[in-house]
Design goal:
Blueprint lengths: L1 E2 L15 H6 L14 H8 L1 E6 L2 E2 L3 E3 L6 E2 L1 H13 L2 E6 L5 H6 L5 E2 L13 E17 L14 E5 L3 H9 L4 E5 L2 H9 L5 E5 H11 L5 E3 L7 E9 L3 H16 L2 H9 L8 E2 L12
Parallel strand pairs: 2-6, 2-7, 9-10, 9-11
Antiparallel strand pairs: 1-14, 3-4, 4-5, 8-11, 8-12, 8-13
């Protein structure tokens, strides 16, 4: 993801674009009996899709301070997915470190919670194709004298607990002190109070923190990306191939219909405060390098 000026519309409403998907992407399409349909059958039987999401990761999933509702990129994606099944979406906020356990224990039907693909995670859950690609960067104070990542080599760095970035930073900066916090606000406050020289996360999340704190005059996001570019997709319970197939067709249709670009523009692109452009397509293979 890179900074650029983009043009685009707002997120379209309605189910008309999904008529073909709803008819085609049924268990029968994949040669599955009702007994084999797994999670898809359960969702349709109860009339509800339970999405596990993050609640503190603006603009992907966060609490709107105006109405206290959880909103964002992944929230709208879940709601549109539920629309193709003609069921009610239920949004369940979970902690980053509880994402996979909540899924494995059956408390949610899927994760739409900035869960990035890794070979290790793919042994625990199955992934759909990609719906988001993002780089990871670090924010520092302008008066810190740090102008590049090499300046973090022996510094204190705050991150959110439970993400891939914690281990990546320890590997990239073995002499740095990585401070992990349970909550985004806690690690950002630690950075603001000078307890850490930098805070690192997805580029879009750092930009959201910067905008919300109104501290663009005193902080800067370093231009270099960390040694990790992460692809996020839906995560489902291991072995649920029919559900993965459904999700992959949903994402392919979402992209080809123009709704993928509209969703991106609304939350991250031209219609948002971030004005970023995207260099990925929804439905791209999540495991490819």
């Amino acid at each position: 993801m890179r900074l650029a000026n983009t043009k685009g519309g707002v997120l379209m409403k309605g189910k008309s674009l999904y008529a073909a998907l709803l008819v085609a992407a049924t268990p029968g399409m994949w040669g599955l009996s009702a007994a084999e349909a797994g999670t898809l059958d359960d969702i349709k039987a109860r009339g509800e899709l339970i999405c596990g999401v993050l609640g503190n990761s603006e603009p992907f999933g966060y609490e709107d301070p105006g109405n206290r509702q959880v909103v964002g990129y992944e929230i709208d994606l879940c709601k549109d997915l539920a629309g193709t099944m003609d069921v009610t979406p239920t949004i369940k906020v979970i902690a980053p470190q509880a994402r996979i356990p909540e899924l494995q224990q059956g408390r949610v039907d899927l994760l739409a919670a900035l869960i990035s693909y890794t070979n290790e995670r793919a042994e625990q859950v199955d992934f759909s194709n990609t719906y988001l690609v993002d780089s990871f960067r670090c924010m520092v104070k302008k008066d810190s004298g740090i102008t590049g990542l090499d300046g973090l080599a022996d510094k204190r760095i705050s991150v959110q607990k439970g993400g891939l970035i914690e281990a990546a930073l320890r590997s990239q900066f073995p002499n740095a002190t990585v401070l992990s916090y349970d909550d985004v606000s806690e690690r950002f406050v630690a950075f603001q109070q000078g307890k850490a020289a930098a805070t690192c996360d997805r580029a879009t999340l750092l930009r959201a923190l910067q905008i919300r704190a109104k501290n663009e005059a005193t902080t800067t996001i370093l231009p270099e990306a960390l040694n990790m570019m992460q692809k996020a997709g839906f995560a489902v319970r291991k072995g649920d191939k029919d559900f993965v197939d459904y999700l992959n067709q949903f994402l392919a249709t979402y992209e080809s219909s123009g709704k993928g670009q509209a969703l991106f523009d609304r939350w991250v692109g031209a219609s948002s405060n971030y004005d970023l452009s995207r260099d990925f397509k929804m439905g791209d293979d999540i495991a490819s390098q």
